[in-house]
Amino acid sequence: MKYEFLDSDGNVVEISMLMRDAPSIGSIITHEGRTLTRIASTSVQVDPGANRSQYPYVSHALPRRLQGCKTDRKGKPIVESKRHEREIMARHGFEKD
Fold first, then answer.
1. For 1-37, what is each residue's pLDDT tens digit?
2. What number of other Cβ atoms are within 10 A of residue 77's Cβ?
3. Coil, strand or helix: which one is 61?
4. Over residues 27-56, mean pLDDT
5. Is the peptide bond before 63 cis (omega within 30 degrees of 0)?
6. What is the pTM (predicted TM-score) of this model?
7. pLDDT at 49 > cutoff 80
8. Which residues of 6-23 are buried (b: 16+ CB within 10 A; e: fewer)?
9. How many CB atoms lie within 10 A of CB 94?
10. 30, 67: one domain
């Protein structure tokens, strides 16, 4: 999965890493000699394994404990319907890849 970071010049840098290795938003890391700050991504990567024709579904791409969504026990957002999906995307400024 790709995560976005901000460098000291204000440029957005994307780094691919496993979800378990991703630092929290706001964390500062050093990558290839650069100091980077993890930022929230404005695009959402679509999980090809999720069947979006059946609602509700648990989103593995959206941030945990997302405002306006019920969550599963791990804090992952539950998308109730196509309309709910569109509302979430618009409210939080997300775009589908």
1. 788 999 999 899 999 888 888 898 899 999 999 999 9
2. 24
3. coil
4. 79
5. no
6. 0.47
7. no
8. eeeeeeeeebeeeeeeee
9. 18
10. no
